[in-house]
Specification:
The protein has 54 residues and is mostly helical. The chain is built from 2 helices and 2 strands; from the N terminus they run E-E-H-H.
Length: 54
């Protein structure tokens, strides 16, 4: 679970599972991409969510 750390800047500390899930989502979103520009377009349209540890 992600944990938000308040300070001068807001930081999100993520677990290994959070990072792996984001990579999996990225791979699913970009699997049919043909080039760098298309990949950027697909990722820009996507929403990535990480559950917060309360």
């Amino acid at each position: 679970m992600a944990r938000i750390i308040e300070g001068e800047r807001r930081i999100i500390k993520m677990s290994v599972d959070d990072v792996i899930n984001i990579v999996r989502e990225y791979q699913q979103i970009t699997k049919n991409s043909c080039c760098y520009e298309h990949t950027r377009e697909l990722v820009a349209k996507a929403d990535f969510y990480v559950p917060e540890d309360v």
